[in-house]
Structures are given as C-alpha cells and as structure tokens.
Amino acid sequence: MFSADSIYVQILATRFVVKNIDSGVSKEIARNQQYASPRMLIADFTVAQHQLKETIKSLRRGLRAPEILMHPMECIEGGVTQVEFRVFVELGIGAGASRVGVYTGAPLSGAAVQKAIREYKH
Hints:
The chain is an alpha/beta fold. It is built from three helices and five strands.
C-alpha cells in the first residue's frame, strides 16, 4: 500500500494497454483517432496524456506516484528517436509517474517489468 505501483504501458497506434503489475489489473483504452498520424504513435500529446492519466488513476492502489514503463509497440522501425523518447518520458510524467522508463523489445510481464523499471538508466 505504501510502495509505488509498477505500471506497464504498451503504446499502439489505436490503443493503450495499461497494466498494474502489482495488482494484475489491466485496461485497454481505444485511442482518439481524430488526431492520429501515420508517422508517429503520439500525434496529439494533450489528448494522449489525458487518456493515459485517467486510466492510470483508475488502476492505482496506493498513495505514492507510480513507476511507469512506456513500451512503444509500433512505428519504431529503426529505433526510437530522441524526440519520440522525450515524448514517451513526458507522457509518463504528465500521467503522474515518479519515474518513467522507455523500453523497446519483446513484450514483458510481471517481474520483468519491475526489473526494467528498476534498472532503467535515463
């Protein structure tokens, strides 16, 4: 209850998949496609931040700000640019995180998410 929740956010072009690793509860949120872009996962920062913030708020259990691992799943061929990296970090901070990590690779689960957050170097 007094420790920070570990939140895993998979970012896809049409949805966010948000999971509280500690409680096991997850939600899938359809992204607002009115402001979508075929070139970037986050085309409208304000709308994405609001959607993510409300979703994370509904999944939190404790009083401490959560630790979030952002995982872009699409539109990252060739790697994540510095601009995209910054967007993902700022999106997590704006959603209420005390710590944000950005991960690319195969989907993670459970303890692997917590380990990735703990070992993440900015």
